[in-house]
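User: Hey, quick favor. My workstation is busy. Could you predict this chain's structure for me?
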Amino acid sequence: MKIRLLCLTFILAVRCQFDEKTKESVCKNYPCHPHTECQAILRAKEGNSEWYYEPLCMKVPSCATKQCDPGEKCVMIKVQCRLTPCFKLPTCLPDVNDASPEYQMPPALLVRK
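Assistant: No problem, here it is.
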């Protein structure tokens, strides 16, 4: 019984890896408008129970449409999804200098004379 369960787990793991590779290859060379992103959508073939991935260009959220408060910047954050499509989300974060505090200087002091 344990061997059957182990074999079933292995088969499902291999199938999931195959599905991910197939999903990635569907959109590899599929052209989309610059403001859209290719997403591999799982579809069923008519008349039978076979499933396949179909490329679909979808409008995606972007920082171009996100309004942030003064002192903030828009950053695209990757989130974990259970279903497709899964997009990065535009998020407003404080606009701080990424350097260590001892190296942070006001922009006026960084200008060459």
